[in-house]
Amino acid sequence: MRALSGLAIISLASLAVCKPTARNMRVLGRRDSAPSGFTLKGAASPDSVLNLRIALAQSNPAGLEEALYDVSTPSSPNYGQYLTKEEAAQFIAPSTETVSVVNGWLAENDLNTTSLTPAGDWLGFKVTVAQANELFNADFNVYTAESTGKQTIRTLTYSIPAQLEGHLTVVYPTVTFPKTGLLKPVFSSVKARRSEDIRSRSDDVASSCADTITPSCLQSLYGIPTTAATDSSNKLGVSGYDDQYANKADLEQFLQEFRPDVSDTTSFSLETLDGGSNSQDRDDAGVEADLDIQYTVGIATGVPVVFISVGEDNSDGDLDGFLDQINYLLDQDSPPQTLTTSYGDYEPDIPEDLAYNLCNAYAQLGARGVSLLFASGDGGVSGVQSESCYDFVPEFPSGCPYITSVGGTTGVNPETGVYFSGGGFSNYWGTPSYQASDVASYISYFGNTYEGRWNKSGRGFPDVAAQAENFDIVYEGSVETVSGTSCASPTFASVIALLNDELLAAGKSPLGFLNPWLYSTAASALTDITSGDNPGCNTNGFTATTGWDPVTGLGTPNFDALRTAAGL
């Protein structure tokens, strides 16, 4: 396994810089106060060392978007003719002028940096707090997370020299505070179930679906085949964060109980970065990691699954893992054709320029033929997880138009939108062309309900949905039941991985960035979910209805219909 080349940060010699005058500095990042849950302890020690990253302005993100849509839209003559690593990177590589200006500033301040991305748009370096305060006209302090007691060093404002305006877009983490919890599965119950009870229920799929969700239930409900995939070049990636470890003994027991037709020695491969690992001590198993692995290996029969464990080396903030994983994949010549991620953040907690940068990185992978699926969140219209709010809180990266957001359903005959299904409209990105008519239709239906609390011109999410409640998993040797859109994303990703297997076996291109296909050719291949809502912010949230809606998207998968839509 290899980590992204160049991630080791070079230490700096002592800096001798003068305090910049205010008139020569321009504020680049600011927040009025620390987020809820953080208290100010006091000034950070001047000698404390910070790992900082700077993002250089990207040369042609509009060209990248155009290229992405060109290879991802079924009506395009270039559909499926994906870009190479180098072709995708050239849209993002900073201009000669930007490189010259930034390098001049770096040399002036004796800053030694490491390039963190194939395109060279991110640079990393270490500085002391005293140096960072001088360089960025900042005031770095120590803040304590009330829930964990963990301390972090952040500033509420920072500036850059005027000559860097338009060339340097983000200094990270600076004003971006760590989250005290990312997207996690919501436990609906935590109890052991007897294996014989499970097996007797799984013989009756309808009964099983009404009680708990198992692989046989999903296969029956969505028409997912049980025959094994055949193309070894097709891979399904599973993101692992927060020291979540996927346990092989738990997977073996899961297959014995829920996929007895599959060898219980079927497993997954491991790739690590930033010091990531995958302890096999059963007491170290992670419920999120177990869930994601068991419902990819257990549904995408025969598809090689790779668990990508992202550690916390080089980390000074939660988004470091997101940045490093995407850059790790961009550096690969052949990244997995499908990636599912069950983690997210609140959109307003991420500075816009940082969010745009990450979103454009997802666009690069999409242009190279990778399908990126993210759980839409478990807080309804309140964001990743429910909290007090007035304005609806979009989720990141679900608001990014270059990924596929997966919401949640519950029940069978018919399915309905589950109450916690994250959904809404981005405040950072406008409505993309591929969903413009669908969003317009929904807004016409929903009218002025909760006027002013959500963005009518924003990118709508989720795009699709799948079952998300009462999933049986094996965790630390016991069968337990979990719920959340963390269940839906690996389920839908497994469907895509199986379709890619057939496409590659037939000599065709994988599906790549899904949304232009989903909102056109494949729209009728999804089962429309027309009931349910996603309450939050002291409201009933949005309402599912005929057609696309911000609770269940376009609907849930119908495998045979999707095969036809994919040209199989």
Automatic annotation (TrEMBL):
The protein's required cofactors: Ca(2+)
GO molecular function, one term: metal ion binding
Organism, scientific name: Wolfiporia cocos (strain MD-104) (Brown rot fungus)
Active site per UniProt: E288 (charge relay system), D292 (charge relay system), S486 (charge relay system)
Signal sequence residues: 1-18
Statement: the UniProt record of this protein carries the keyword Hydrolase: yes
Keywords: Calcium, Glycoprotein, Hydrolase, Metal-binding, Protease, Secreted, Serine protease, Signal, Virulence, Zymogen
Cofactor: binding details: Binds 1 Ca(2+) ion per subunit.
Ranges in a coiled coil: none
Catalytic activity: Release of an N-terminal tripeptide from a polypeptide
Localization in the cell: Secreted, Extracellular space
Record function comment: Secreted tripeptidyl-peptidase which degrades proteins at acidic pHs and is involved in virulence.
Sites where the protein binds Ca(2+): D528, I529, G547, D549
A GO cellular component entry from the record: extracellular region
Pfam families in the cross-refs: Peptidase_S8 (PF00082), Pro-kuma_activ (PF09286)
EC class name: hydrolase
Keyword ATP-binding attached: no
Protein name: tripeptidyl-peptidase II
Annotated InterPro entries: Peptidase_S8/S53_dom (IPR000209), Peptidase_S8/S53_dom_sf (IPR036852), S53_propep (IPR015366), Sedolisin_dom (IPR030400), Tripeptidyl-peptidase_I (IPR050819)
Main location: secreted
Gene3D superfamilies: Peptidase S8/S53 domain
Taxonomy of the source species: Eukaryota, Fungi, Dikarya, Basidiomycota, Agaricomycotina
